[in-house]
Fold Glucose-6-phosphate 1-dehydrogenase.
Amino acid sequence: MGEPARLSDYQAESGCLSIIVLGASGDLAKKKTFPALFHLHRQRFIESHDVHIFGYARTKMSDDDLRDRLREYLTPRKGGEETHDEDVSKFLPLIKYISGPYDADEGFQSLDEAISAYEMSKDDKGGSSRRLFYFALPPSVYPPVCKMIKRFCMNKSEGGWTRVVIEKPFGKDLESSETLSTQIGDLFNESQIYRIDHYLGKELVQNLLVLRFANRLFMPLWNHDNISTVQIVFKEDFGTEGRGGYFDEYGIIRDILQNHLLQVLCLVAMERPVSLKPEHIRDEKLKVLQSVIPIKDEEVVLGQYEGYTEDPTVPKDSNTPTFATVVIRIHNERWEGVPFILKAGKSMKSRKAEIRVQFKDVAGDIFKPKRKGRNEFVIRLQPSEAIYMKLTVKEPGLEMKTTQSELDLSYRQRYQDVIIPEAYERLILDTIRGDQQHFVRRDELKAAWEIFTPLLHKIDNNEIQSLPYKSGSRGPDQADTLAEKVGYVQTHGYVWIPPTLSAV
Ligand code: NDP
Ligand code: BG6
């Protein structure tokens, strides 16, 4: 393998790049956005002579105050430890901070002046200006901020561009999402809007397309004739600490299922796109969403971990789910009858995200009742990224006994020298390159809200109750019962253990 491609390899246009982080004083900015920019810079995907970074928020602080705040979040990565201090000292001076409100002219006029001054200082490049606005802000301020950008801060050069990256949640239900989409859509073209869902930037989520469509092995198997259930699971072993106020307004369905898990489902279930062009892929994802039939109340289990309402920012009588299992059914030729079990929970026993494709039993199986468990194809998104296939094999020895084992591709073992990039790094780079494949299109967003809005309204009206579950547990027992009822067969006594490096 040669050198990784740099940004300049992809740039048809020349000129300077301004990355503007709106809400630069906030949590997402310091934990994800700036660190992602740092690592892109460190690896020379964005270069000092091309790029300048502007932080914008209401908080009054100097350039150095912001740089000092960010410093502790710019942590070294494997392979970058030795040059870390030098890398940080090259990166931080690229950041300038401008303070201002989100809905008044002055702040955005100052921002535009600062960007223009930088662009003029780079005039020798004689190219166009490229302006990337990253909204690390609560969605309530997206509309005024979009208006201000449109009025004062658009790229003014020929051949340059202005792009906006907006974070989830995009609305709270179908209606509010459509209102938001219209407000933003009146100001920017769809090609300028990058709706980020960071799960689409995860290494193993990006691998789904390759696995499914570059391996002959899976093509004839990937349908209702062979697959019994698909589970897409997200678990965190911590609660909503520090984000209780936000979380209580949204709940686990809006926070995780409607976006991250549904996007993964689309990639698992979609038909082969005509090509790898972003629009072809997004067309196929949309068809999946449009084929989902209404969710049945009896195929939903909600939970709330005990102690959730002790957070002072959460009302004592909150019914907001911190756990949900929801069965999604896709009415099309490939998936008729196959339940897609989406499951997500906070404050669970462990932290992991995975896709579990379970195959049907062998027809006329000659090994029954000795057989122990079904074939399962598991894609472990995090932690310990892996792809493994659970198989039934003969137990080594003189007797003809069967046991469960696996064909295992553990990334840590197989790709020891490879550093898996953070989702945000990849997605920011895609935005600079103008590649919208891993971003959510407006019609996809609408279709995703259409699926969940009726259920969300029932929850908001307390028509479906969240069952209590203990922190550190698997969630309510009823969720396991539901998964079993719709066809998932748990293999007891089998546990996949990620290989350790010492075992290599
Ligand atoms: P914060 O609450 O930290 O807000 C970011 C900044 O926005 C704050 O520093 C503040 O800056 C300004 N702000 C906060 N509340 C308001 C308000 N009511 N009106 C105007 N400005 C306000 O948010 P996060 O950084 O956590 O999240 C930003 C966005 O990213 C949100 O849409 C969130 O849902 C999304 N997100 C966040 C994740 C995370 O891990 N934090 C993960 C995934 C998505 P100032 O007062 O200085 O102007
Ligand atoms: C965010 C959610 O989108 O994803 C958080 O708002 C959640 O509640 C986070 O913790 C999980 O992301 P990851 O990449 O750590 O799985």
Remarks:
- The first strand starts at residue 17 and ends at 22.
- The longest helix spans residues 244-269.
- The radius of gyration is 24 Å.
- The chain has two domains: 15-167, 201-420+441-503.
